[in-house]
Amino acid sequence: MAHRYIFIVFISLSIIQALSDNQNSMAQQFLSGHNRLRAGLGLPPLQWSGSLANYASWWANQRIGDCKMIHSNSNYGENIFWGEGQGWRPEDAVTAWASEKRYYNYGSNSCQINQDCSHYTQIVWRHSSWLGCARVVCNNGNTFITCNYDPHGNVMGQKPF
Q: Going by C-beta distance under 8 Å and a sequence separation of 6 or more, which residues neighbour residue 121?
């Protein structure tokens, strides 16, 4: 009888380890995309925050029923992403946000007219140090991804770097 309990505990620990490995892999995927962009500008790398990741997960799960592009309105910086279908990866969201770089004019510290570059500027905000993200597949089969940054960026009148 004792062997059965040991086997069950071993399987449970293996499942927990697999989930933990998946979370660490997901965190690394988010970090590597962000930090590659930051390194290109000579900015310090972001560090992963479990509390921000928990917040991002909480918000992503609030959107699981409708997958709507709605911000959480916290005091964190926040980028959100929606993709049709389930195959969207962390680097896909980061790439989409980073693509806004082409709309940002550093000299005037502004975006081109009728364009958004705030996701890009949040990623490269020099004072942001911490990152936490989450990804969910919504009930409709589409993907919602959110990343939170602390301290938040996009402060009016300040350049990101």
A: 104, 153, 154, 160
Tell me the whole-structure pTM to 2 decimals: 0.86
pLDDT digits (tens, 9 = 90+) for 20-35: 445 679 999 999 999 9
CA max distance for the chain: 73
Please state, in angstroms and as integers, the Cα–Cα distance from residue 92 to each residue in 33, 39, 74, 119, following that order. Answer: 9, 19, 24, 13
Q: What is the pLDDT of residues 66-76, one digit of tens each?
A: 999 999 999 99
Q: What are the Cα distances from residue 9, in Å, to 2, 66, 107, 117?
A: 11, 37, 60, 49
The alpha carbon of residue 57 and the mean position of all alpha carbons in its chain are separated, in whole angstroms, by 10
CA distances from 121 to 17, 95, 132, 138 (A): 35, 13, 17, 27
Is residue 67 within 8 A of residue 142, CB to CB? The reply is yes
Mark the ranges of the chain whose per-residue pLDDT is less than 70: 1-23
